[in-house]
Write a structure and sequence with these properties.
Blueprint (H helix, E strand, L loop, with lengths): L2 H12 L4 H8 L3 H9 L6 H10 L12 H7 L2 H4 L2 H12 L9 H9 E7 L5 E8 L4 E2 L2 E2 L4 E4 L15 E6 L8 E6 L2 E10 L3 E7 L3 E7 L5 E9 L3
Parallel strand pairs: 1-5
Antiparallel strand pairs: 1-2, 3-4, 5-6, 6-11, 7-8, 7-11, 8-9, 9-10
Helix pairs in contact: 1-3, 2-3
């Protein structure tokens, strides 16, 4: 199956609907539904949403995630735990409103997370959806990572240009040859760091030309490490 096919199959079987019944609700033939579930037919997002809605899936339950996000990231057949299936049945038996939502949304919350995007003054200006592995992104707790939007071209020589998004993971450890985020009197700024003898650091930037400054390691406050770059072409 495709992952979108997994989603449709999961919702259909969870609601104890046959492919023929879903086809009738959606105004298509049974083969159409089975082809989508088997991954042999690709359909637009709006068509998939319409079929899900016909099955009774409330629109607000997938407001946090697009079908592109789902199809590209999540193996839905393995994302839902047996414990969640049991809990969902119990909620339904008790008449809970939550049971009307989709269990795949709970699964997605465990594997996808909106990561905030901050500008140069650390004001949130957006978010990006990233996969989560055991509650972590890039090996650290998912809630600790964030994107910094580059405010200028001072790191252009290191492939970071104005408007690019740099994924930052928290760190207070100096790493030689890495782009690190420093807390400076001028604000939070990116530098390429080079470790020098006698507990000194070379802080490097590169716009039109390379510029550097030697400082005492004790005077530098590292708050994060750049681990990923997202740039618009």
């Amino acid at each position: 199956m495709s992952r979108l096919g997994d989603l449709l199959h999961l919702e259909r079987t969870r609601r104890k609907l046959t492919a023929k019944a879903v086809a009738k609700l959606a105004g298509v033939n049974e083969k159409y539904i089975l082809d989508v579930e088997n991954g042999t037919r690709i359909i637009p997002d709006d068509q998939a949403r319409r079929i899900l809605a016909k099955m009774g899936l409330e629109q607000q339950t997938d407001a946090m995630f697009t079908l592109d996000d789902i199809a590209a990231t999540v193996d839905l057949q393995t994302a839902v735990s047996p414990e969640r299936l049991v809990r969902s049945k119990k909620e339904k038996d008790e008449g809970s409103e939550k049971a009307d939502g989709s269990i795949w949304l709970d699964a997605l919350k465990g594997v996808l997370q909106h990561v905030p995007v901050y500008n140069a003054v650390m004001k949130e200006v957006g978010s990006r959806l990233l996969p989560v592995t055991q509650g972590k992104i890039e090996g650290v707790p998912a809630e600790k990572v964030y994107y910094l939007m580059s405010p200028d071209n001072r790191m252009r020589g290191y492939r970071v240009q104005k408007g690019d998004l740099v994924l930052i993971v928290p760190s207070n450890t100096v790493e030689d040859g890495k782009i690190m985020l420093l807390d400076t009197p001028q604000g939070k700024m990116l530098y390429m760091l080079k470790v020098l003898p006698r507990y000194q650091l070379l802080l490097q930037t590169y716009d039109q030309q390379s510029e550097s400054e030697v400082v005492a390691m004790a005077d530098v406050k590292v708050i994060g490490k750049a681990v990923r770059l997202e740039a618009e072409l």
